[in-house]
């Protein structure tokens, strides 16, 4: 009979069950292992080798220096702020696109993804035009009485948040779009039929079921914002005292590789633990996303 | 008129195409009306307009006498059972059923007792804490019905509620729903494309075709007095002949049909060209070759289908068309394929509908 339990090659040799998936994973695993895991391990080894052979002097230096602790806190709050802005702006937009019955949807998604098409340098110069003291946005804010004279968004934390949120918003929108599109619209209809206003229906049903997408999108935006370098340094200038900027200074300006490796290891560890905690928080009742 | 639901020339156009075209319909209190028709005839669209998910492009919808045409779904008093059930996957059975009561601000203790009652009524005891994906199709369907019923809506709307169940379960579930509907005196509109299903449980059937209601009547009236050719063909099995009226007198109307048949129908106000409807079970067969007089035709048995208590025969007529005959289970023994037969029927069995 042809009902072989294990895959055979053409000569009838029985292949172990794990081999085909392993072969399929091999290219990605090689690239990931060779270009990410291995260097990362090397970096980690560098960070725990002062004084040699094993020592944690660089970690003590980082955590004992209030300047670097402030850099860490600033970086994490930047990540949190950008993620929050992207979620608040991205969910309604993604919901609108997912529920729009129009052949223009692919085109609209392309427009949404536009910021990703422009280089960070060009994008940041555009923000300068808007955010500098005599830029449009700053003038509007002052004219509307929302900001004092001489106010500018350029070279401020808020300016960095705005510029980063702009470029990362497409990732949030596209992630959420795919998830919301997979949620049966009749679930919202059912909620409304049972007496929930449209807004409540979305909160009670769509938002709950989109948890997986909210998690994935937030993680993407958060990790990219805490490791961003070009946009924060261009828009933030001297205020951009962030982890990525600190790593840049330690490697290319001060040439202190063990300390740079330490900063980078701390950043990675924090990003991973944030992902774990956030995942637990959002995944209250493990609902599979359809 | 104490109609719970009233549709007044309700239309829905998508571009130039009318999904629903000037549909008028009233559902009385405690009545179950089936919307029956082929795929794409506008049944779901009609039901969704009553629920408020689709906005009509013309006409008015009234619930308990109030015009709700522009009222959003959450302020309408309808309970919808979706074809896919649309159970909230992140909520348990009990939470799904409690959803509508919570939105209405019902007190916590009352919610608990009403949910418990509904769980009992829907035979879901023991499943309260399950998630929808942990239920069988039939159980999911009962949760969907219970969730809609518990809020006591003016009308309960069901979109093909049995289509995801297997044949056996479908029959028992629909009988159960009918019993529940009659016991609780529920007003209900129910969409189906299965005529047997509509005949079995509806008080009245609205037969829809291409966005319009062709006839709305009791199952018996729709079956015995189809007003249009479409209705005759869609409800049950029917022999339908194009015929031309050749004589009218007080005794009846004579019309010439195909294969040399002369029909004599009861007196009626018929136009010149009509479609004559003859139900297969109204035909009597006898052995023979000569057909004399009106309401008879000769032919040859060519197909036989035996169903146990009943049987169906196909009789080939002179013009090559086939007459469908239904009778008791001994029919195949009496008329083997190839035997010459004469078919006849009573004038009262004939119905003329618009050609
Ligand atoms: N959003 C829409 N845009 C354009 N046309 C639509 C839309 N929704 C429905 N239609 C059209 O309206 C007609 C009626 O659709 P409807 O879903 O009411 O049919 P139905 O009778 O429920 O059919 P079925 O038995 O297949 O469910 C169909 O021809 C359909 O193509
Ligand atoms: Mg339908």
Helix/strand layout:
The complex is a heterodimer of chains A (290) and B (355).
Chain A: H1 19-47, E1 49-50, E2 55-56, H2 57-64, H3 66-99, H4 105-112, H5 120-131, H6 136-143, H7 157-181, H8 185-193, H9 198-209, H10 211-226, H11 230-236, H12 243-253, H13 257-282
Parallel strand pairs in A: 1-2
Chain B: E1 3-14, E2 17-28, E3 32-36, H1 43-51, E4 58-63, E5 66-67, E6 78-81, H2 93-103, H3 108-121, H4 137-149, E7 155-159, H5 167-183, E8 188-192, H6 195-201, E9 204-209, E10 212-217, H7 219-224, H8 229-234, E11 239-249, E12 252-256, E13 262-265, E14 273-278, E15 284-287, E16 296-306, E17 310-317, E18 322-328, H9 331-334, E19 340-344, E20 350-354
Parallel strand pairs in B: 3-8, 3-9, 6-7, 7-8
Antiparallel strand pairs in B: 1-2, 1-4, 4-5, 9-10, 11-12, 11-14, 12-13, 14-20, 15-19, 16-17, 16-19, 17-18
The structure holds adenosine-5'-triphosphate and magnesium ion.
Magnesium ion binds next to helix 1 of chain B.
Helix content of chain A: over 70%
Overall shape of chain B: it is elongated
Q: Which shape of chain A, going by the Cα principal axes? A: globular
CATH superfamily of the largest domain in chain A: MetI-like
Q: Strand count, sense and closure of the main sheet of chain A? A: 2 strands, parallel
Our estimate of the beta-strand percent of chain B is 35-45%
Structure description:
The complex is a heterodimer of chains A (290) and B (355). Chain A is an all-alpha fold. Chain A has two domains: 17-47, no CATH class; 57-285, MetI-like fold (Orthogonal Bundle), CATH 1.10.3720.10. In chain A, 71% of the residues lie in helices and 1% in strands. Chain A contains 13 helices and two strands; from the N terminus they run αββαααααααααααα. A two-stranded parallel ribbon of chain A has the order 1-2. In chain A, helix 7 runs antiparallel to helix 10 (211-226) and helix 8 (185-193) packs across helix 9 (198-209). The longest helix of chain A is centred in the N-terminal third of the chain and has 34 residues, at 66-99. Chain A is globular, with a radius of gyration of 24 Å. Chain A starts with 18 loop residues before the first helix and ends in an 8-residue tail after the last helix. Mean pLDDT of chain A is 87; it is low at 286-290. Chain B is of the alpha+beta class and 355 residues long. Chain B has nine helices and 20 strands. Chain B has a six-stranded mixed beta sheet, sandwiched between helices. Chain B has a five-stranded antiparallel beta sheet with strand order 13-12-11-14-20. In chain B, helix 2 (93-103) crosses helix 3 (108-121) and helix 2 (93-103) packs parallel to helix 4 (137-149). Chain A binds chain B through residues 184, 186-187, 189-198, 200-201, 205, 208-209, 285, 287-288, 290, and chain B through 51-53, 72-74, 78-80, 82, 84, 86-90, 99-100, 103-104, 133, 147-148, 151. The complex binds adenosine-5'-triphosphate and magnesium ion (MG). Magnesium ion binds at residues 43-44 of chain B.
């Amino acid at each position: 009979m042809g009902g072989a339990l294990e895959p055979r090659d053409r000569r009838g040799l029985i292949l172990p069950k794990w081999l085909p998936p392993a072969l399929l994973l091999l290219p990605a695993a090689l690239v990931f292992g060779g270009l990410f895991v291995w260097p990362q391990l090397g970096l980690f080894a560098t960070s725990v080798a002062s004084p040699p052979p094993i020592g944690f002097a660089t970690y003590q230096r980082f955590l004992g220096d209030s300047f670097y602790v402030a850099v860490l806190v600033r970086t994490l709050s930047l990540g949190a702020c950008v993620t929050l802005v992207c979620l608040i702006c991205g969910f309604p937009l993604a919901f609108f696109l997912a529920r729009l019955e129009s052949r223009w949807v692919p085109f609209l998604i392309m427009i949404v993804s536009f910021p990703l098409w422009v280089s960070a340098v060009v994008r940041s110069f555009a923000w300068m035009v808007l955010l500098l003291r005599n830029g449009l946005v700053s003038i509007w804010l002052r004219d509307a009485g929302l900001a004092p004279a001489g106010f500018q968004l350029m070279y401020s934390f808020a300016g960095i948040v705005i510029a980063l949120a702009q470029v990362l918003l497409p990732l949030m929108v596209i992630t959420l779009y795919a998830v919301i599109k997979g949620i049966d619209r009749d679930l919202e209809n059912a909620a409304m039929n049972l007496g929930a206003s449209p807004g409540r229906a979305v909160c009670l049903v769509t938002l709950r079921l989109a948890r997986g997408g909210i998690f994935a999108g937030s993680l993407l935006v958060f990790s990219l914002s805490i490791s961003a370098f070009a946009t924060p340094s261009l828009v933030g200038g001297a205020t951009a005292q962030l982890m990525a900027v600190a790593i840049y200074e330690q490697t290319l300006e001060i040439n202190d590789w063990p300390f740079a490796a330490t900063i980078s290891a701390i950043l990675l560890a924090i990003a991973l633990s944030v992902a774990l905690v956030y995942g637990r928080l959002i995944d209250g009742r493990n609902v599979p996303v359809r | 008129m104490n109609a719970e639901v009233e549709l007044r020339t309700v239309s829905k156009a998508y571009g130039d195409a009318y999904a629903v075209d000037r549909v008028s319909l009233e559902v009385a209190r405690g009545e179950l009306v089936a919307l029956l028709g082929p795929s794409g005839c506008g049944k779901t669209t009609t039901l969704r307009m009553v629920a408020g998910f689709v906005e009509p492009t013309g006409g008015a919808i009234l619930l308990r006498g109030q015009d709700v045409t522009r009222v959003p779904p959450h302020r309408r008093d309808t309970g919808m059972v979706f074809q896919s059930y649309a159970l909230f996957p992140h909520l348990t059975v009990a939470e799904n059923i409690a959803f509508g009561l919570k939105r209405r601000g019902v007190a916590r203790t009352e919610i608990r007792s009403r949910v418990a009652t509904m769980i009992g009524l829907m035979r879901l005891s023991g499943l309260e804490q399950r998630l929808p994906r942990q239920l069988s199709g039939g159980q999911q369907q009962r949760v969907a019905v219970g969730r809609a019923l518990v809020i006591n809506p003016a009308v309960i709307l069901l979109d093909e509620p049995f289509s995801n169940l297997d044949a056996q379960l479908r029959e028992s579930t629909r009988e159960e729903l009918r019993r529940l509907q009659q016991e609780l005196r529920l007003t209900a509109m129910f969409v189906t494309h299965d005529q047997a299903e509509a005949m079995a449980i509806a008080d009245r059937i609205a037969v829809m075709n291409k966005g319009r209601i062709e006839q709305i009547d009791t199952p018996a009236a729709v079956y015995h007095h189809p007003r249009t050719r479409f209705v005759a063909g869609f409800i049950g099995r029917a022999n339908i002949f194009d015929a031309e009226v050749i004589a009218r007198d007080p005794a009846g109307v004579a019309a010439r049909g195909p294969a040399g048949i002369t029909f004599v129908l009861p007196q009626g106000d018929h136009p010149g060209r009509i479609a004559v409807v003859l139900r297969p079970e109204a035909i009597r067969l006898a052995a023979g070759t000569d057909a004399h007089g009106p309401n008879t035709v000769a032919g040859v048995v060519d197909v036989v289908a035996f169903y146990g208590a009943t049987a169906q025969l196909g009789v080939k007529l002179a013009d090559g068309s086939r007459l469908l005959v239904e009778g008791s289970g001994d029919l195949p023994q009496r008329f083997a394929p190839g035997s010459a037969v004469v078919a006849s029927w009573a004038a009262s069995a004939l119905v003329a509908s618009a050609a």
